[in-house]
Amino acid sequence: MDRTAILAWVKAERLSLADFLDDLDDHEWQAASLCPGWTVHDVAAHMTMSTRSTLLGTIKGVIRARGDWDRMEADLARERAARFGPVELIAQLRETAGSAHRAPLSSPLDPLVDALVHGQDVARPLGRVREMPAEQTVAALEHVRASPFYGARRRLAGTRLVATDRQWSAGQGQDEIRGPAGDLLLLATGRAAGLAGVSGPGAERIAAALQVSVPRNVSE
To answer: What is the pTM of this model?
Structure first.
């Protein structure tokens, strides 16, 4: 896939997210996101970090977190959220929206996944609708399925994903999961919130992998 096109997608999604955040009230910034233990403010801070990260800083962060990558990400996000308020973070997100700089070890599509998924992480708990562009969402979903970083291979084992809002399907498993590509992307990245929009016999399998109960509306 053309990197120039991917970068344009990333820029547009970051700018769209900045506009979304600009519309939030003060209390919404302190609300819990879909990321366990993270507020909306923490997620916004995290979104400004990849274009400013360095290999040395990442190594130091991993050491401080005793090798726990998720803990490192959470620590750095909270530290940055404590340093910068909403107005500053929105300005930083817009300032580097078109930056090609990426976090160490990440691929060109990872910033797109980050922007799409974290956009839902903040929107859904607030009861706000944030549309996910079709082509970009499918590209992100295919990348997440193939990448060893997100744990999707294990999480989606034995299932076949079928998008109901566009022509896309993947997987060879007998247990099918049908739903909007955006909800499938949330499931692929470990967000149980995606279960609310899907149906099919594979929902039970995914719920078990995520260690949550299946909402009644997803069972057949």
So the answer is: 0.90
